[in-house]
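Budget justification aside, the reviewers requested a transparent look at the raw inputs and outputs of the sequence design task funded under Objective 1. We therefore reproduce one unedited record. The lines immediately below are the C-alpha cells for a 89-residue chain.
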C-alpha cells in the first residue's frame, strides 16, 4: 500500500533503490503527468508509525516536508536493505 499526499498508488507505483537514492515511477498506463523521479537519500527522512496495529513508514522530503510517501513496513525494510545503510527504518 503506497500513498503520496492524498493519492493512493497501490499496485501502480514502481519503487526502486540503490546506494544513491530512491527511484519512483508510475506504470505506463498512468504515467501521463507523472514523470519518473529520483530522490537522493540525503533528501529523505523516515519515521515509523502504527495505524490500526499495522506498521507503516512515512518518507518525507527535506526540501518540502508537505510531500510524504507512506509505505508498508515490509516494503520500506526492503528498500532500506538496498540503500546500503542510507535509509534506516
Amino acid at each position: 500500500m503506497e500513498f503520496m499526499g492524498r493519492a493512493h498508488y497501490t499496485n501502480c507505483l514502481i519503487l526502486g533503490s540503490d546506494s544513491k537514492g530512491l527511484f519512483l515511477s508510475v506504470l505506463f498506463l498512468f504515467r501521463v503527468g507523472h514523470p519518473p523521479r529520483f530522490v537522493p537519500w540525503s533528501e529523505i527522512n523516515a519515521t515509523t508509525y502504527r495505524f490500526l496495529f499495522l506498521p507503516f513508514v512515512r518518507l518525507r522530503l527535506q526540501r518540502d516536508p508537505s510531500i510524504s510517501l507512506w509505505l508498508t513496513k515490509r516494503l520500506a525494510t526492503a528498500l532500506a536493505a538496498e540503500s546500503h545503510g542510507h535509509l534506516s527504518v
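The helical segments are 73-82. The chain has a mean pLDDT of 83. Computational costs for records of this kind are itemized in the attached budget.
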